[in-house]
């Protein structure tokens, strides 16, 4: 009895080790913790800082490019829009079948997130592309559709959309992990309590600008768990002391149009 239990445990343990192994190659790399420096090459930006994490566009960057970054020792986050269909993407027509209405930007349409289970295969295909290209993590953007209520999905409200948004994002996080990818929680600060257990790091735009007291306190939950929080502020000439006290690796795009100003955080 005792022996067979040990054997059973050994079998279960080796199965577990095997399934973890299958995904361990990417996820075993250094975690993105507090103090991680970064470079933003996604969202149409150029950023020449030489950060440890580099955020790039999944669909426009090649496998060779990702390989060169990985070989250079960087941690690669691959960006895609999970909440809009964009008319310059190769899978645009497939995405449009589940789109609800035009979004904030030209050529971009909100996905009807009430149908996320019907289009999740398209999102999973993008995650598989990230795996195939060698990305360590993903940054699914435009996951804030629910905040726009009927402006994103006609006939819905922020409250009616919120549960769909949470389920969709939890599915993305779990699927990413199954594929060996880590995942960023992009914006969607209201959902931090619902998602932080499955999110590996956070990326926010304009929290110093928009949060009422210019203090991005919602992100404390990530900071406390030593999960990196990356922030960008636009058209402001910032000061790094706020970012440092908040624990946010923040970049300021200066209003004079000069290069990014990078706020670094020392972890010693
Ligand atoms: C970033 O975070 C702040 C709160 O800390 C929030 O007000 C703001 O809306 C977030 N940015 C976006 C684009 O959602
Ligand atoms: C732009 O602003 C930043 C921050 O205030 C400053 O460090 C930099 O020298 C400025 N660049 C130019 C070209 O004025």
UniProtKB/TrEMBL annotation:
Q: Which Gene3D superfamilies match?
A: Aldolase class I
Q: Which residues form the signal peptide?
A: 1-22
Q: Which Pfam families match?
A: Glyco_hydro_114
Q: Does the keyword Signal apply?
A: yes
Q: Which UniProt keywords are present, listed alphabetically?
A: Signal
Q: Tell me if Signal is a UniProt keyword of this record.
A: yes
Name of protein: Glycoside-hydrolase family GH114 TIM-barrel domain-containing protein
């Amino acid at each position: 009895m005792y022996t067979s239990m040990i054997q059973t445990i050994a079998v279960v343990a080796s199965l577990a080790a095997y399934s973890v192994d299958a995904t361990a190659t990417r996820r075993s790399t250094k975690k993105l913790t507090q103090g991680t420096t970064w470079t933003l090459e996604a969202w149409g930006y150029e950023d020449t800082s030489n950060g440890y994490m580099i955020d790039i566009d999944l669909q426009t960057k090649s496998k060779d490019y990702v390989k060169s970054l990985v070989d250079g020792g960087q941690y690669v986050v691959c960006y895609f829009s999970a909440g809009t269909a964009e008319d310059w993407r190769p899978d645009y027509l497939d995405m449009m079948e589940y789109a609800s209405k035009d979004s904030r930007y030209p050529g971009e349409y909100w996905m009807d997130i009430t149908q996320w289970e019907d289009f999740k295969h398209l999102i999973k295909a993008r995650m598989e592309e990230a795996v195939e290209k060698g990305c360590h993590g993903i940054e699914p953007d435009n996951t804030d559709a629910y905040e726009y209520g009927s402006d994103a999905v006609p006939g819905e409200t922020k409250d009616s959309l919120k549960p769909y948004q949470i389920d969709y994002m939890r599915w993305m996080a779990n699927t990413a992990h199954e594929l060996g990818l880590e995942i960023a929680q992009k914006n969607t600060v209201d959902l931090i309590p619902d998602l932080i257990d499955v999110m590996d790091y956070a990326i926010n735009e304009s929290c110093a600008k928009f949060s009422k007291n210019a203090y991005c306190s919602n992100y404390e939950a990530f900071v406390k768990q030593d999960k990196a929080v990356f922030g960008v502020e636009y058209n402001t000439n910032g000061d790094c002391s706020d970012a440092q006290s908040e624990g946010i690796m923040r970049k300021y795009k200066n209003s004079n149009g000069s290069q990014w100003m990078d706020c670094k955080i020392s972890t010693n």
